[in-house]
Amino acid sequence: MIHSVLSSVEAWGAAAASRTVLLASPRAFCAGVERAITIVERLLAGQEAPIFVRKQIVHNTHVVRDLEERGAVFVDELDEVPVGATAVFSAHGVAPAVREQAQQRQLRVVDATCPLVTKVHSEARRFAERGDTIVFIGHAGHEESEGTLGEAPQQIRLVETEDDIDALEIDGPVSYLTQTTLAVDEANRLVQRLRARFPHLTGPNSDDICYATTNRQDALRTIAAQADLIVVVGSANSSNSVRLVEVAERMGTPAFLIDDVSDVDPRWLADARTIGITAGASAPPQLVSDLLDALAGLGHTTVLERVVAKETLSFGLPTQVRGHAGESVTSTPEHSTQAGGV
Ligand code: 10E
Ligand code: SF4
Fold first, then answer.
1. Taking 70 as the threshold, does the pLDDT of residue 325 lie above it?
2. Engineering a disulfide at 253: which of 62, 118, 164, 224 sits with its beta carbon 3.0 to 4.6 angstroms away?
3. C-alpha–C-alpha distance, residues 52 and 220, integer Å
4. CA 259/CA 267 separation, integer angstroms
5. How many domains does the chain fold into?
6. Is the pTM value of this prediction over 0.85?
7. To test ligand 1's pocket by mutation, which of 137, 238, 342 has the most ligand atoms within 8 angstroms of CB?
8. Which of 91, 113, 135 marks a domain boundary?
9. Do 269 and 331 fall into the same domain?
10. What mean pLDDT is predicted for residues 173-199?
């Protein structure tokens, strides 16, 4: 016990140094996540009865814990929700079968699906109606994939790798769609492979990988090129956060995913004089501020923000929680908000 405390003190001692921090921008909350959290917050503020949320509203342990403490009840499936109660669908979207189940249970549904995920669902229905077989590039078992696949289960094939593509046997017209949070470089590689196999392949009018995913990866690339290591703030089940780690690693820069500053291992920092920091789209900005404060406690830090884009997109709220007509939620990743107030 004493030995492990001493070695921990030694490790933190070795981590003490002055450093440069490269801060990626945009980082942290996107507009779809802000909207989903606002929906739950408003329902909690306006109603005595429990608010049930199907699955994690977004894939972040801090966000979920905070909303839980304020009264939200997270469930895995709708059969855990009492008949007639209020149920929120998470930002990742749901399959039509889940909507039908909600109707059967006479639930009051408030849909927090990000509009950019809804767009992919619409494309899936459109491609299926015209008779295509749809190749969906995404991650098996992820809620967003499950939701989109559910739009036309007989006509959609999920692929994750080039081998999956090589194994496809499809007659007739083929189109593709993607999960919104894929790594852009990997997705492009897979689409190229698909096109080689199916030369008449058609796709969405505009990229399914969303603006927030793209911006966070672009910003990360600019800092990963100059950093000794990258720290990504985000939870382990957050697809877009994990992709940020992988993008950095593919560039040859070691990268670590942390839920918050308490996950930092001082041994990572010992030889790192330039640290790159970013956060996934579901991570509260305050967690980045906490990390910066902790690094400042280890020695003088010079923080340089690398801005590749300004995000001004905003999404309207569902009528059930709208304060006034046309009200929307804007993503402001450059500004810190309280982790407890997400
Ligand atoms: O695991 P994901 O990255 O899909 O989700 P997240 O909750 O970490 O971030 C928000 C992204 C959503 C809702 C999917 N487009
Ligand atoms: Fe919407 Fe993109 Fe955010 Fe997902 S990552 S919630 S698709 S804006």
1. no
2. 224
3. 35
4. 17
5. 3
6. yes
7. 238
8. 113
9. yes
10. 97
Atom of ligand 1 nearest to the CA of 281: 9
334 is catalytic: no
Contacts of 182-189 spanning 24+ positions with Cβ under 8 A:
182/137, 182/138, 182/209, 182/213, 182/239, 182/243, 183/217, 183/243, 183/246, 183/247, 184/209, 184/213, 184/214, 184/217, 185/247, 185/250, 187/137, 189/162
Q: Which secondary-structure segment (H or E) carries 176?
A: strand 174-178
- Tell me, in angstroms, the distance from the centre of ligand 2 to residue 121's CA: 14
- Ligand 1 pocket residue status of 32, Cβ below 6 Å: yes
> Is there a contact between 155 and 133 (Cβ–Cβ < 8 Å)?
yes
Q: What is the pLDDT of residues 58-87, one digit of tens each?
A: 999 999 999 999 999 999 999 999 999 999
Instruction: Given the residues 144, 146, 151, 311, select the one marked as catalytic.
Output: 144
Domain assignment of residue 183, given as a range: 116-197
Asked whether residue 205 is domain-assigned, the answer is: no
- Tell me, yes or no, whether 246 and 323 share the same domain: yes
Same domain flag for 239 and 309: yes
In a 3-state reduction of DSSP, which class is residue 52?
strand
- Which of 95, 113, 131 is the C-terminal boundary of a domain? 113
